[in-house]
Fold this sequence. Notes:
By secondary structure, the chain is an all-alpha fold.
Amino acid sequence: MKELLLAYPDLRTAQFPALIQAVCKTLTDAEASVRSLLPPLLSAVLPLVPTSTLAPHLPVLLLHATSALSSIFPAVRVDAVRVLGVLLDEGGAGCDRIADGWETGSGGRGEGGRVLEGLLAVLGVGGKGETAGSNAPLGTAVSLRLTCTA
């Protein structure tokens, strides 16, 4: 994918909506092998795409990524955290709003607060005491694996 986008810069804008739709559909895919390809794909593609092209698609991508944080499957939640990490690392200025309010502790306010609450709940350190159902924290082994592979 990266080679195609480098060879044909026009594809970066023309085919980016289709790429984002495909990424969003696979964020909660049952197959771990499919989900595991998303972080490397996004790491390769996002730096090549102008912020003006990414910005209109960011809310949809963020919606699907945060939705995957509440999956009943722990492995899907782990992969969602990885995708959010790639968005923060590679998304440029367009992805800054993901972390809005993290440093000031304004959790719950705006998009950044909701993302932070979701991440904390997945890791089992959320302040709202959600411990049942799809908001149950990851097991210790999965949390350690997430920490070691991030």
